[in-house]
Amino acid sequence: MSAKILIVDDELSIRRLLRNTLERAGHQVIEAVDGASALAKAADERPNAVLLDLGLPDRDGLELVPLIKKLGDTIILVVSARDATDQKVAALDLGAEDYVTKPFDGEELLARLRVALRHRGISETAPKIVRKGNLEVDLDQRIARRDGVEAHLTRKEHDVLAILAASAGRVVTHQRILAAVWGGGEDSRVEYLRIVIRNLRQKLEAPGAIGSVIANELGVGYRLLTDG
Amino acid sequence: MRPEDDTRPDPEALLRQATQEGRGRFKIFLGAAPGVGKTYEMLTDGAARRRDGADVVIGVVETHGRVETEALMRGYEVIPRRSAPYEGHILHEMDLDAILERAPRLVLVDELAHTNAPGSRHPKRYQDVEELLAAGIDVYSTLNIQHIESLNDIVASFTHVRVRETVPDNILDMADIEVVDIPPDELIERLRAGKVYLPREATRALSHFFSKSNLSALRELALRRAAQAVDAQMLDHIRGLGVGGTWAGSDRIVVAVSELPGADGLVRAAKRIADALHAPWTAVYIETPRAQTFGEAEHRRLASVMTLATQLGAVVATAPASSVVAGLKAFLADARATQLIVGKSRRSRLFEFRHGSVVDRLVRETPGVAMHVLPLQTLSGRRMRLPVLKGTWGSRSGYIWTTMMITGITAIASTLFHILNLGNVALLYLLPVMAAATLFGLRTGIFAGIASSLAYNFVFLPPTGTLTVNNPENVISMLVLLGVAFVTSQLTARVRAQADMAAASARTNAALAGFLRRLTPLNDPLDLGRAICEDVARLFDLRTVLLMPDGSGLSFQAASGPKYDLETMELAAAQWAFDTGAPAGRSSGTLTASDWYFHPLRAGDKTQGVLGLASEDGGDPLRPDQLPLLTSLVDQAALALERLRLEEEMRDVDVVRTRDRLRAALLSSVSHDLRTPLTAVMAAAAELHHGVTPDLISTIESEAARLNRFVANLLDMARVEAGALNLKVEAVDLADAVAGAAHDARRALEGHALDLRVPPDLPFVRVDQQLLHHCLLNLLDNAGRYADPGTPIIIAGTHSYGMLKLSVLDEGPGLPPGREAEVFETFRRMEGSDRAVGGTGLGLAIVKAFSEAMGMSVEASNRPDMSGACFSLCFPSTLIVRDAAQGADL
Q1: How many whole angstroms separate alpha carbon A11 and alpha carbon B579?
Q2: What are the sequence ranges of the domains in chain B?
Q3: Which pLDDT does position B2 carry in this prediction?
Q4: ∠ CA B705-B710-B715, rounded to 5°
Q5: A185 reaches B (C-beta below 8 A)
Q6: What is d(CA B312, CA B571) in angstroms, rounded to the nearest whole number?
Q7: CA B855: distance to chain centroid?
Q8: Which of A173, B314, B372, B650 makes an SS bond possible with B341, Cβ 3.0 to 4.6 Å?
Q9: Residue B758 with chain A: CB contacts under 8 Å
Q10: Fold for the domain defined by B249-375
Q11: Measured at the alpha carbon of residue A20, what is the angle toward residues A17 and A24, in degrees to the nearest 5?
Q12: 3-class SS of residue B869
């Protein structure tokens, strides 16, 4: 799957590295060094995805997220520092698809990009079944099977799993899950969410392999890992 | 006489160094006697300053009708004097307020020793001058040598004229002194020519004063005093420069003072000796049981002697003791005194023969202390009153009881007279006499003696019914009765006085001890200030306020009651007390117009602050006999404040030292931990030019990961040090946290199997997820680094007895026994500093800092079978979430 990717970063070495990685995967790469040129390139070149560094010389990268989104149907992957969880959540809230944390792993970056692009591509043909190892989640029938055996899930567990599966491979913020499943954003419900996730893991993951299906994104949300 | 003369040292420059910034400069024209031309010289000097463009006014100048003086005053602006009505006269006093308002550069104030009219702001003119100087106005003034406090006695001793108006020596110490000098012959000539003003009524007395020998002696005194002032300023200058030297001297002088008249002369003599030796000196009063017999006059005299000593720069102390010799001996040893100054009273030979001379015994019992014995002089030449214990008049009930007892004895004796002889009857009368003397004191005892002898005489001695005595033998019986009354009452009174004194001393000690007990545990300056104010207020039933210096001047620190805003006058008195280290304000002799009495808090050479005291009703805050206790309390308070200040300094020093040590460790550690992986990466990258091998790539990857971990830790440590950990506490599933950490640390754990033993039913804990993640990452990183290759690493969660523990166990060398906890110290690397496995030891320090920030604790130990190390994060029960899902439909 080849796509046109805009890299927005003021560091030459990072741009060079990203270009290398992306071109190796068969993507077409364009570059921008600051916010202004990023907006210009995004408008002119209509990239499929933007790799956006939040620390730009001329303006806050977060401001660019809605502006780029407004220009067209572009996927935004935010590249951010390790501990800036607030920034990550804010970027996701503003419409970014996902994020990678610096220093990142080339393969990890490509995988994230792949998931995001595929998601966009199949949004018309809704996903029916999500698979991870011996786990299978059927979104239409609301059934999860482990080794072909149906797992008995409570209603809430179902709801949470469904939301994660709908965005399979991508991070889903706590707030989004809470809003969708409990219909509100009260903080205390984070504990409910954790219990549900724990129960889901016990039912879906192999013992001693915690996090092999549902990954915890610190301070941001959860990600349902998928094959491929 | 020209200050601008460059060839001689400039005393004004020296003075500037000694005085505070912002104060006016002070110059005294010192003369040996009236008529030497001080006023003339002052006016001439002032005129010179005026010609230089300075704004000079006359505050007060006495012309005494002299034409030359009046001529010199022409051209000066003269501040009109203030009229002060006093006992039918109108006195014209210098108008201090008018001068302050006029605020000239320089004001001329004649006759520094002048006493102001009653009701003036200050009793003394030199205090007016103080205020002018404090307001930043330069002052020129005139003074005769005999008005200087410490020279007062000397001058009186050879001129036989004592002046009452004196100026404390410390006033002179502030001033630049210019001696106005003319030869004695010339002065006598001027006197004959009528050019010297003398008060008419004193002419005859003063003519003796102006003898040539007197004038020569006075002149020498004046010159010496001026030289001493320059000397003192030079010493201040040298001290200010911090130049070391032997001038500090090793002498310590103690002067023993008493309530006897003439003790003030002793104190002045001590000041002269101390000045000559440049030695510190202490005035001590040894409080013996005799103090019980003091009346108001003795207390006042003692207090004024102590105040004088303070004004002259002495440290004052009071030491209770059973006798003067014993007390002095102990005090001399305590103070490590080298010289002792005592006064010798003119006691009768007989008294000395019986009691032994105090001086002789002191010489015998304090070897190693040089002794100056000075006669205690009183100018009136009055003989010393021997110390006799005076009783009080006693109570009325005492006399009634005594009368009743005597009547009773008389009745009993008359009934039994037929079986008693006269001698036995007399013995019976001893009973009421002794009883009265013991129970009701001396006077009642004597009354009993007289009444008994009268009753005995009247009723029993033939001829009975009369007061005549036939037999001389019976006269003796009467005298014996009186004598017994006197002796018994004296003994009893003495015992009682001793008991009272012991009780008073116990009260004082108890007050002091209680005070100390309250002050000792306090570590906050504000609390300490409040405790000082409250305790002193309670002990003396007063209002108190504590002022401490801040950047600009004295400011309010604490008070016994609500915050009290001091008025300008009161603040001036407080400032004076602070600057001079001597009491000021009400009943102190300085700036007495204030309601407040200000006592400096001195510890060592440093004045810590000023304690202000005022009575609730606006009267005198203290009785003279309360002064010693106050001084002791204030000394303790000053020490307590000093202790706090020193502790604070020590803490600051400690902090700096620790910071320096850490900085050094950080530098060496950082340079090592950054360079090692960088070197490896650079070398491997260079090798890539010759061909790519999987080894090179994995070297670059692992070393880069190591660098990444290190930088992350440095950032974390910086956040800890900056106190910038903004905790975001939420309920965390430990199984989840462990899985996340295991995932992120997978590279550091390469070659080790990870054995997760975290039960899925562990309760949630309330912590910051990010910080916990970093703790776990560092523990896993540490385990991966130190575990033997190929061994499994275990993460185990346990929950028992309310304590939740998450442990990381490895198999490897473990920790040095007995030093397990040291691994958490910053930059600690176990076993040497340069192990191949590397690592700064920052990681474990971060684990500890983060854990403690979240309310957790950390443990490091060896596994029970010594197969490796075990690090645990301990979550106390307060962090454990109970029943998170209670009632929820999940």
Answers
A1: 65
A2: 11-241, 249-375, 396-495, 525-650, 723-879
A3: 42
A4: 125
A5: no
A6: 23
A7: 43
A8: B372
A9: 210
A10: Rossmann fold (3.40.50)
A11: 145
A12: strand
A208 near B CB under 8 A: yes
Query: What's the CATH number of domain B11-241, 1.10.3720.10, 3.40.50.300, 3.40.718.10, 1.10.10.10?
Result: 3.40.50.300
Q: What is the largest CA-CA distance in chain A?
A: 55
**Cβ–Cβ of B890/A199 closer than 8 Å?**
yes
Q: What does the pLDDT look like over B262-308, one tens digit per residue?
A: 788 888 888 888 887 777 888 888 887 777 677 777 777 887 887 77
**Highest mean pLDDT range out of A8-17, A23-32, A57-66, B713-722?**
A23-32
Separation CA B821–CA B823 (nearest Å)? 5
Bridge pairing between strands B869-875 and B857-862: antiparallel
* Closest among B753, B820, B766 to B793, alpha carbons compared: B753
> Structure tokens of B729?
């506490």
Residues in chain B closer than 8 A to A158 (CB atoms): none
Q: B152 exposed, middle or buried (CB, 10 Å; 0-12, 13-18, 19+)?
A: buried
B756, B770, B885: residue with CB nearest A208: B756
**Other C-beta atoms within 10 Å of B661: how many?**
12
Which token pair is B598?
């200000």
Residues 6+ apart with CB under 8 A from B102: B57, B79
Q: Map tokens 């040090």 to a residue.
A: B721
Do A4-121 and A129-224 have matching folds? no
Residue found under tokens 């009325």: B396
A95 close to A66: Cβ distance less than 8 angstroms: yes
- Annotated domain spans of chain A: 4-121, 129-224
Give me the CATH topology for the region B525-650: Beta-Lactamase (3.30.450)
Residue B671 neighbours by CB under 8 Å, 6+ apart? none
What's the topology of domain B723-879? Heat Shock Protein 90 (3.30.565)
- Is beta strand B176-180 parallel, antiparallel or unpaired with respect to B606-614? unpaired
Using a CB–CB cutoff of 8 Å, tell me whether B728 touches chain A: yes
What CA–CA distance (Å, rounded) separates A70 from A53?
18
A197 and B736 within 8 Å at the Cβ level: the answer is yes
ipTM of the predicted assembly exceeds 0.90: no
Distance CA A166, CA A139 (A): 8
Residue B403 has which token pair?
A: 């009368």
Q: Please tell me the pTM assigned to this model.
A: 0.45
Cα–Cα distance for residue pair B312/B166, rounded to 1 Å: 12
CATH topology of domain A129-224: Arc Repressor Mutant, subunit A (1.10.10)
Per residue in B106-147, pLDDT (tens digit) is: 999 998 988 888 777 888 899 899 889 888 899 999 998 888
- H or E stretch covering B856: none
Helix (H) or strand (E) holding B445: helix B442-455
Rounded to whole angstroms, the Cα distance separating B731 from B881 reads: 7
- DSSP notation for A51-103: EEESB-SSSBHHHHHHHHHHHSS-EEEEEE-TT-HHHHHHHHHTT--EEEESS
Length of chain A counted residue by residue = 228
Chain B hits for A215, CB-CB cut-off 8 Å, are 740, 743
Q: Is the pLDDT of residue A125 over 70?
A: no
Beta carbons within 8 Å of A196's beta carbon, 6+ residues apart: A156, A157, A160, B890
B11-241 and B249-375: same fold? Answer: yes
Question: Are B732 and A191 inside 8 Å of each other by CB?
Answer: no
Residues A168, A172, A177: CA angle, nearest 5 degrees: 110
In the block, tokens 């007279």 appear at B417
Return the CATH number of the domain spanning residue range A4-121.
3.40.50.2300
What is the number of other CB atoms lying within 10 angstroms of the CB of residue B379?
13
Please tell me the distance in Å from B765's CA to the nearest CA on chain A: 10
Residue B798 burial class via C-beta count within 10 angstroms: exposed 0-12, middle 13-18, buried 19 and up: middle
